[in-house]
Amino acid sequence: MINYQVDLTEKLISDIEHVEALCFMAENVRLHPMGYYFHSHHRYESVSKAYLVKNVNLKVDSIDKHKYVYESSNSTSWNLIGKHSVEEMTQNFHHFEQDFIISPNDLLAIRCTINIPKESWSRSIEIGHGVHNEKCIFHLLYYVNGTNLMHKTTCLERNATLDVWSEHIHVPRIINKEASTNI
Q1: pLDDT tens, 116-125?
Q2: Which range marks the domain in which residue 54 is found?
């Protein structure tokens, strides 16, 4: 079993922050998820959600080879696969409500919404590895059939608070709203 981790590192600067990551399945491996958990320090009111986005195509910018976009179509679907809120203090693995497979060219979209009280606005709040930092880490527990394993098991988003989702893929309005609410 391999741990698929999204680790987000960035400074928080406003009252509500969206910490986001997009993890594209570029390898020819089919993952059979068994469980997940979000790890955060719960310093502020927060909600975390993970989506499996099907039917997307990765497109590299023709001018800037380091920039990429995910092309969506009418058949692109966003499926909520996991959620966690500050009220759930346990950070144990949770089982998925339904079975699904993560296939090549699928996308994992992770968003943590952190509501920072006004009294904390005067200081910088860091997201990082330290015990005094806030963090948003999504772990995915899965298995594969056969011997073909993933080589890249960590997805890292360096500019996580810079609207990663909207910069790289069309996010339906209802998903954008749902991903930030405690429902």
Answers
A1: 666 655 555 6
A2: 2-178
